[in-house]
Write a structure and sequence with these properties.
- The chain contains 24 helices and 29 strands.
- The protein is an alpha/beta fold and about 675 residues long.
- The protein has 3 domains: about 230 residues, Spore Coat Polysaccharide Biosynthesis Protein SpsA, Chain A (Alpha-Beta Complex), CATH 3.90.550.10; about 180 residues, no CATH class; about 190 residues, Rossmann fold (3-Layer(aba) Sandwich).
- About 0% of the residues have low confidence.
Amino acid sequence: MDAKPPIGVVIPGYGHPQFLAEAIISACEQDTDREIHVVVVDDGCKFPETRATVANLLPVYNGKLHYVRQKNTRLPGARNTGIRFLLNLLPDLDAIYFLDADNRISPYSIEAYRKTIGDDPEVGWAYPDISFFGLTHGENGFDTRETAPDYSLLKHLIGNISEAGSMVRAEVFRKGVMYDETMIFGYEDWDFWLYALEAGFKGRRCENSGFLYRRRPESMLADSTRMGDELVSRMRRTHKKLFNPQHVMMLEHREAPYFALCLSDAKDTILLFSDPAIDPEKISFKEFKTRFHQWNNSPREFFFPPLLLFMEQKAWTALQDNRKLLRWLFWQLREKPVEKLYLSLRQNNHSGLYLHSGEVGVDAEFAISITSMAHIRAKIMATSETAEDYQEPKLHHGLMGLLYADEIEHRSPTYFDCLEQEFIKELSPAPKYILHQNRAYAGPATGRIRNDLIREVCALEDRQPFPACEQIERTLVAVKSEFLLTDSIRYRVVQLLNQLKQENHETVLLIEHASGCDLLACRYDEWEHLVGTVVPYQIGDKSGIYKMYLGRGISAELAFGTPEDTALFARQCTRVIGCGAVAMLEAFGEARLHGAPGYVLLEKEFAVAETKNTTQLGKLLAYEHAIVNIATDEDAYSVALTAEGFPPSKFIKKDDFYRSILKHAG
């Protein structure tokens, strides 16, 4: 039988000579048939005891223990030195384990870690639970903290769920992933894992790893905690790919779906999703019940959908038939959270979501019931704990207008109430879990992930992200509804949409309207196949508020707190294109700040003013700073704007625009 490839251990040595011997011995005395090589990197330690400790142990572990001394580079540099030493020493190196000088591992640890990594090449490292000794809170001298019993990319983006005392597959280093030697104030291990994620690897928890972490009053963690916000901001800038809104929303859809859907005529199947326009996860009711009770027992640890929907298959089919409107409709559901909501699905050319609070009428019929899982959980806990006072939620009802909604059976609220009661009965009772005195979850709280990561990266404060969860090149095109009502102007818009229609590219069409957007009157059938998502967005009254710029009145169409709405839509897009001086111009700056540069396409048909003394021309001047390029073949517009100070370098011809900007779409 061929010998198993060797495993290395890196122990940085600086400032803890009294503990170093324990760490070295624990690494060298492994119960394994693998070849183990342990390298101590003396990072310019000022204590002679560090060198003496290693010197005394070198004869004992001859050929297994190695010693390297260098000028002080801090912890990341010391680990990199150890990595390079082992890669040069052992061409067939299988993996490297990192052990700090004040910690130790058990005799079975190396084999436990290596077994966890397994043969899946995507698993780049195995991480432990953290079992503390020394200064602990455990009555028996130990206490264990579980940072991520199930590995989660979302959790790893908000906090370091993989302790530095982990084993890393050597292929990770061969792909160029190393420690950032400028991360000298802490979080260097978290930063390293983010680099590994970018390289296509992921972690896996090692159960019963035997890793022991010595808790001391002083540590680098205290310094890194004080500098936490600054270090986290730096890492988000460094790892832009991971913190891209599209990537974060994709992770939410996969790991923490926002909606759970129960089809009343297929009760054993629950659909989980954040983005209603892509395929949901399908699980059995038994699996849903298991996940519910996990969340009920430990809401800090487990993700669970905040909203539960009841409907029949015909209603879900009708929603799927209106797939291009689904993101817009479900975004509104996220934006208007209510504890209990009944919705009617009606065929309506003016698509939208209209909510009303108060009691539901006797004769009212609905196609969908939506309730919060917090309401379901509270009701279950109230039935099992009679001392708890439970208040029924306030009711809301509303209308969801769709283009295609034929043959949908609408039911009375009583029908959905019965479904809910049956659902609650099947989820009950809430099981009692045994809590281990010296073991607890210590990873990031799921509520913090939704608020401090998903909302912060993908939305704005106190807002909900637009649920576009596919990682794809996406262009937002903003157009006024009146443009689509006129054949000659609509032709120009469709021409642009045709230019954008490519494989692996999606167009989001934002239709600005002041009162109502009749999609059929806008000849939806002509351009439906050219777009992936339609956003019929109501803007303010154009005769309302004006701002002044260079002596001109500039219409403030997004004056009532809505510029952030359009910026939300742009967060998941690669670029934004305005057809003329659209209201969306007012959000171009916010969109560009978050990585979606804005362009304006000027056509004669877009009703851009022909004289310089107009609000339309003034609006382009006012928001010039946020516009990357204006594409037009109309010399009169470029001459008039240039004369007013618009940079001439920002003007390009339409053909150049299509070649230089849109050629990258898809």
